[in-house]
Amino acid sequence: MRLKEPITLISVVLFLVLIGVALFLYNYNFPKKVNVERTAVVFTLNNSASAKSTIIKVNGTLYKPIFGQKKFVGNVSIDAYDFTKDQEVTVYITKRNKGINMSTLFYLDSSAPYEINQYGLMWFDDRFENINIWPSTNWIDVKEKNLAFIATGSNYEQALQTQIMMRKKFGDMFVPHEYDSLVK
Predict the structure, then answer these.
(1) How far apart are CA 15 and CA 23, in angstroms?
(2) Which terminal residue of the chain, N or C, has fewer Cβ atoms less than 10 Å from its own Cβ?
C-alpha cells in the first residue's frame, strides 16, 4: 500500500509537467529577430534594360509557432518606393515549401480609414537572404502586360538566378512561371 502512494504522486507530477510543456509549445511563438539589408533589382520580366538597383530593408520579428499561423511583424522597406518606408506590416505566411515562405504584403494608407494602398505577393527564406516580390501593377510602370518583380541580387542576372532557385524549391505556386523549362 505504501508503494502505491509514491507511484501515484510521481504519475501526477509527470502528467502535470507534460501538460505544462504541451501548453508552452502550443502558446510560444519562437520569435526570431530580423534586421537585414539586401541588394535587390526592380525589373520587368524578360527585359534586362528595365533593371534598376534598390535596397530591401527588413527589420522586425519572425514568429514561428509550432501550432498556429507563422508571421513576420515589422518593416519591409524598399528604397525605390517611398510608400514602403516607415510603415509596420504584418506578413502572414500562407504557404511554406522547402524553406521558402509565401505571403501577401500589404501597405496601408497613412491616415484613416487606413485602406490598402499597395499590395503584392512575397516569397522569402527565414533569413531573408532570398526575397522575391511580385508587386501589384501600379507599383511599377510596366509597358503592355509584362510582369514586374523586385528580387534580391546585385544585377538583373543575379535576380533571375534568385527567382530560379526559389522556383525550384517552392514549386508551382511561385511566380514567375517562365522558368519552368529550367526548373524541371
Answers:
(1) 12
(2) N
